[in-house]
Write a structure and sequence with these properties.
Blueprint lengths: L1 E5 L3 H12 L3 E5 L2 H10 L1 E5 L2 E5 L3 E2 L12 E5 L6 H8 L10 H4 L1 E5 L5 H6 L4 E8 L2 E5 L2 E4 L1 E3 L2 E8 L8 H9 L3 E2 L7 H11 L1 H8 L4 H22 L6 H8 L3 E3 L11 H8 L10 H10 L5 H16 L8 H12 L1
Parallel strand pairs: 1-2, 1-6, 2-5, 3-10, 6-7, 7-8, 12-13
Antiparallel strand pairs: 3-4, 8-12, 9-10, 11-14
Helix pairs in contact: 8-11, 8-13, 9-12, 12-13, 13-14
């Protein structure tokens, strides 16, 4: 199999580098300065054990690969707000032997949130959801960091929707397990992804107010997650319990220091810190808002967090631009 990593940033770059390091064939999709650095210097992955450089082919998009191979596996690792554009670019590409990527190739959604699989299924017949437990950072062009050890991460894999047969699932899981990951195969991956969604609701708090420390910040996180749990319960959506997630994770993915790299924050924090043009809040906190509206359950905490992250992006405000008190005042205003 050949793995095509669509979005070789923090998560995609780490998975691609680990797969390449175990002997798998990998192609990275990247643009701009990141692509230039990958072509010039290779893909540099920094782990607690040190730095590893992998020379892998790099392309800017599907047109540079030409006809795709029948054994290609697409790893979709872009942020949720970029999913549709990426899927639309890759789905119509021809595959050797006939047909298109959307008709013939499997696509794995290595992404936060729970909407990507549905978007992919509109365009691809073979969709695999992935619950990503992988602490990773985009350090600079050409370099990503992954602080998990002794395993780099845990990637739960499952067909979407549940119950479909996917011939490559076992082979992909085996490759990941040989590449410093665990790759469980639950009967249904979506409860794991919904549990991760509840955890990711804290991303906005960290991005807006800085490290989640002290009783007020922790209370804000708890309020966002409690609101999320209430919304999912009202919608009849199952989420894996925190106890089960901790049991599976155990001490196999402990966050350790990376040599020469200061500890950063989560994905939304990273987006604001880099001055990115968009952030994931619409697909994390916004997912709770949407589901709450569908089931007549107000979600003022998550609505405010989503709104403030988007305001910060538009205004070019970096991470930590708000105090917890300012966020709480905005929540109170939404509640009326």
């Amino acid at each position: 199999m050949r793995y095509i990593v669509i979005g070789a940033g923090a998560v995609g770059g780490t998975v691609g580098a680990r797969l390449a390091g175990s002997g798998c064939e990998v192609v990275c999709v990247a643009r701009g300065a990141h692509r230039e650095a990958l072509e010039r210097d290779g893909l540099r992955l920094v782990t607690p054990e040190g730095a590893h450089v992998h020379r892998v082919p790099v392309v800017g998009g599907p047109e540079e690969l030409g006809e795709l191979r029948a054994d290609d596996v697409l790893l979709l690792a872009v942020k949720s707000q970029d999913t549709v554009a990426a899927l639309d670019a890759w789905a119509p590409r021809p595959v050797a032997g006939g047909g298109t990527a959307g008709e013939r190739l499997p696509v794995l959604c290595l992404q936060n949130g729970v909407a990507n699989e549905r978007m992919a299924l509109r365009r691809f017949a073979r969709v695999i959801g992935v619950c990503v437990w992988l602490p990773a950072t985009y350090v600079e062009a050409g370099t990503v960091g992954a602080g998990g050890a002794p395993l780099t991460g845990i990637l739960h894999l499952g067909t979407y929707p549940r119950g479909r047969t996917e011939p490559v699932l076992e082979a992909v899981a085996a490759d990941l397990r040989a590449s410093h990951f665990d790759a469980p195969l639950p009967d249904d991956v979506m409860p794991w992804k919904y549990a991760k969604l509840l955890g990711n609701l804290a991303n906005a708090v960290e991005a807006l107010t800085g490290p989640v420390e002290g009783p007020e910040a922790l209370a804000l996180v708890e309020a966002a997650r409690a609101e999320g749990s209430a919304v999912l319960e009202a919608a009849g959506i199952a989420a894996t319990s925190e106890e089960e997630a901790r049991r599976v994770r155990g001490d196999r993915v402990e966050l350790r220091p990376l040599p020469g790299i200061p500890r950063g924050g989560g994905s939304t924090w990273q987006s604001l810190t880099r001055g990115a043009a968009s952030a994931e809040a619409d697909w994390l906190n916004g997912e709770i808002v949407l589901t709450g509206r569908l089931h007549d359950v107000p979600a003022p905490v998550n609505e405010t967090l989503r709104t403030l992250v988007n305001e910060a992006v538009r205004a070019g405000r970096g991470a930590g631009a708000y105090t917890v008190a300012e966020v709480r005042e905005r929540i109170a205003a939404v509640r009326g």
